[in-house]
Fold this sequence. Notes:
Elements: E1 2-7, H1 28-44, E2 47-52, E3 68-70, E4 75-77, H2 89-96, E5 102-104, E6 116-119, E7 122-127, H3 133-143, E8 149-154, H4 161-164, E9 165-169, E10 172-175, E11 189-192, E12 204-205, E13 210-213, H5 217-225, E14 231-233, H6 236-239, E15 250-253
Parallel strand pairs: 1-2, 4-5, 7-8, 10-11, 13-14
Antiparallel strand pairs: 1-15, 3-4, 6-7, 9-10, 12-13
Amino acid sequence: MLIALTRGVSPAMNRCELTHLQRRPIDIVLADRQHQAYQATLAAQGCTVLALAADAGLADSVFVEDTAIVLDEVAIVTRPGAPSRRPETTAVTLALASYRHLALIEAPATLDGGDVLVLGRDVFVGQGSRSNAHALTQLQTILQPWGYTVRGVAMHDCLHLKSAVTRVAPGRLLLNPAWVDATLFQGWDVIPVHPAEPAAANALLLETALIYPRHTPLTRQRLVAEGLMPIGVDISEFAKAEGGVSCCSIIFAA
């Protein structure tokens, strides 16, 4: 059974952190409606949705992926790069304690879960404004007993590594080659995003389904041409906050 840990839309979301985008008004009512539909899509694909309450004091807290990395062996609670986001980990830690042994990323390390792409026993960590080199060392120490290898990845012009590359099928990645070097992922078949949709590389792969945003139709056509069948969700309001479909949940086996 898959658990999908989510968190409600904060009424303060218009004060979200932004790095690469100019601020645009977010319709909170529409964002909440989109989030409910997103959770319903996860449930329809067999996930048990564990929904945490929204927090009016934590503008970015709907982007729960950044607060933890959950593997079969351990859950790693992060230390987000934006100081305003660090209190988000409290509720997530309590929720995950029932499912996994917990490990913590500690200062001076900073780590956002959106920077972490796990491909088998290889853990790729984007090195940008939110996750630093200290996090690589701590992650390797935590994960070494289970045979994982942690690798730092340079990226450009995007907030998180998963803005630039995600897994869309066994052995296959969706990637923006302008934001991350495809040759870093040896042995993986790469599907490039459409050049007109640079932010289209973020997808959410479940056991039997691929969740994908509706607002990037040109890249969706590329996925379909490759034999994939993405399930569309509307996340227009979350995209204004530099969010994607993977950002709004933490997926793990119970």
